[in-house]
């Protein structure tokens, strides 16, 4: 989660996000306002992303 103090680092943040995504990570971004005033939406979107990823994971047979 990025706060307003991170706004000046947008280019660096984009590179970090690109690097993480190239390794297979999903990056979710929320504004500080969303975190403060719409936390239920943030939690809902995060839960939905996790559930979606879990459905796409194919576990090896045991």
Task: Provide the fold topology.
Layout: H1 10-22, H2 32-37, H3 39-56
Throw out a few tags for this protein:
62 residues; mainly alpha
What does this molecule look like?
There is one protein chain. The protein is mainly alpha-helical. The protein has a domain at 27-57. It has helices spanning 10-22, 32-37, 39-56. The relative contact order is 0.12.
Shape: flat
Mean pLDDT: 84
Secondary-structure class: mainly alpha
Strand fraction equals under 5%
Task: Give a short synopsis of this structure.
The protein has 62 residues and is mostly helical. It is built from three helices and no strands.
């Amino acid at each position: 989660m990025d706060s307003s103090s991170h706004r000046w680092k947008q280019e660096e943040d984009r590179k970090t996000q690109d690097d993480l995504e190239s390794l297979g990570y999903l990056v979710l971004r929320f504004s500080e306002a969303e975190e403060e005033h719409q936390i239920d939406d943030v939690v809902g979107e995060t839960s939905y992303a996790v559930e979606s990823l879990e459905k796409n994971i194919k576990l090896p047979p045991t």
